[in-house]
Amino acid sequence: MAFGLQQVQSQSYQFKTSGFSVLEKNERGKWGDWSNLDLVNLSVILDTNKHRIVVYSQEIQLFNILNYIEREENDTDVVYSFMCKDNDGRECKLSIITRKKQDYRKQLYINYDDHIIVYNMTSV
Where is the Sensor histidine kinase NatK-like C-terminal domain (predicted)? Predict the structure, then answer.
């Protein structure tokens, strides 16, 4: 499934997660290892009408979109990225990546300065 995210075509996109993993920086500022993949069945909504992305986890994660970054594509990935502010007012970059060579698997990356969360997703 392909989807365009031009602001002219405001829409809502729904996804279901199947698992997530976390990568954190240590006290010396070096990236550690990804955590084991935890299975999790959550809803994720990208709503370009309201300019937000919502992850319906136990504690709802609301990301207000500040800026839509131009779509990137290469031989292996299609990437839609957004500069956002989370529930706590922290800025972060969210990216929805479609892995072309992995049966078009979708992943949501939530990038902070000190940690990254990744969710494996499917379109609903």
Answer: 49-121
Domain boundaries, the chain: 12-123
pLDDT in the model for residue 102: 96
Distance (Å, whole) CA 18 – CA 50: 25
The span from the CA of 69 to the CA of 81, in Å, is: 5
DSSP designation for 37: P
pTM greater than 0.85 (yes/no) = yes
d(CA 15, CA 18): 10
Q: What's the longest Cα–Cα distance across the chain?
A: 44
Locate 86 and state its tokens: 């989370």
Buried residues in 8-30 as b, exposed as e (16+ CB within 10 A):
eeeeebebebebbbebeeeeeee
